[in-house]
Amino acid sequence: MAQGSIRPRRLREKTLVRKLVRETTLAVDDLMYPLFVVHGRGVREPIGSMPGQSRLSVDELVKECKDVAGMGIPAVLLFGLPAHKDPRGSEAYAEDGVVQQAVRAVKDTVPDLLIVTDVCLCEYTSHGHCGIVEDGTVRNDPTVELLARTAVSHAEAGADIIAPSDMMDGRVGAIREALDEATFTETPIMAYSAKYASAFYGPFREAADSAPQFGDRRGYQMDPANAQEAMREIALDLDEGADIVMVKPALPYLDVIARARMEFGVPIAAYSVSGEYTMIRAAGQLGWLDEERAMLEALTGIRRAGADIVITYFARDAARLLERGIR
Questions:
Q1: What is the pLDDT of residue 1?
Q2: Is residue 4 pLDDT above 70, yes or no?
Q3: Whole-angstrom Cα distance, residue 158 to residue 247?
Q4: d(Cα 56, Cα 226) in Å, to the nearest integer?
């Protein structure tokens, strides 16, 4: 090798040099923590397929949110499990619905923590689909009306950001209009813009009791083979008033995150979903890989692809490691 030749290893030998030239950073400020809330008191019910995660009653959720805020995690994403389900998912937009109760309780206790609320009907409907079912088909426009009603009820309870995840056409525009008419013009929308019909949602459906009772969701969630369609979906949501757009899942769709980063100059969220979490956690518990290193590598990869916000069930674990300077 010629004298003075380029040696990339010069920048890898020492830890501090590696940190100095690191291209992508993962910080606690990048994280959003999903949580499941149920009715009752003193409930902390472990989720079998998601080790380390639990369904929480409102009082336990408040405790969790205090801890999360104390760790510097800026936001939580709330999913509700109703006391009763019906074909129209009526608890989703009820004033005393479990999410509405949770938002008020957390805001009263931890006012500086950002509360993002998932807006969908799947957890609340008796059939498990994300909208109104008529003649065996999920109907788009009647569903959109109920989603807008749900969004307003969340904003009235004190939600900071509304996050529609249903993948109905036109729902972002309808929610924006409804929020504006209800004087919530300053409430942002984080749209699940490119949400794929993914096998990686399996553990979540146990956690949220939201598996469809017939068929599947491929009639409204995106085909995993499509990337250009995701760009069209994101553009439509932005035209309708979305402030933040999301790609879900994250790891199998890093290319979609990267394309969205290049094509749109807006904040991008990526949801590292339950299946991604469970794979790493289970393999770590079995001793098949180093769970902490794999977790941080995966989350850093999502940031490297272009995500500004990483929604992850590992948020607390990652925050602890990042506080210790481990990256």
A1: 59
A2: no
A3: 25
A4: 36
Distance of CA 326 to the CA centre of its chain: 24
Query: In this structure, is the dihedral angle defined by the CA atoms of residues 186, 263, 140 and 195, taken in order, positive or negative?
Result: negative
- 3-class secondary-structure state, position 166: coil
Dihedral sign, Cα of residue 220, residue 221, residue 226, residue 230 = positive
For residue 16, give the 3-state DSSP assignment. Answer: helix
Cis-peptide into 188, omega within 30 deg? no
Residues facing residue 137 across a β-bridge = 134
Cα 209 from Cα 226, distance rounded (Å): 28
Q: Out of 119-128, 146-155, 240-249, which region has the weakest mean confidence (pLDDT)?
A: 119-128
Tokens of 86: 């019906």
Domain extent at residue 101: 25-246
| Tokens describing residue 179 | 């929020």
pTM here is 0.95
Identified catalytic residue from 14, 66, 107, 248: 248
Number of domains in the chain: 1
pLDDT at site 326: 79
pLDDT tier at 210, thresholds 50, 70, 90: confident
Residue 295: inside a domain, yes or no?
A: no
Is 195 in the active site? Answer: yes
In a domain, 319, yes or no: no
> Residues 19, 63, 85, 195: which is the catalytic one?
195
* Beta strands 31-38 and 54-57, pairing class: parallel
DSSP conformation class of 227: S
pLDDT digits (tens, 9 = 90+) for 18-38: 999 999 999 999 999 999 999
Judge whether 152 lies within some domain: yes
Gap between the Cα atoms of 122 and 128, Å rounded: 5
How is residue 293 written in tokens? 């290193």
Q: Strands 137-139, 132-134: parallel, antiparallel or unpaired by DSSP?
A: antiparallel
The CATH number for 102's domain is 3.20.20.70
In a domain? residue 296: no
Active-site annotation holds for 85: no
User: Contact at 8 Å (CB) between 62 and 51?
Assistant: no
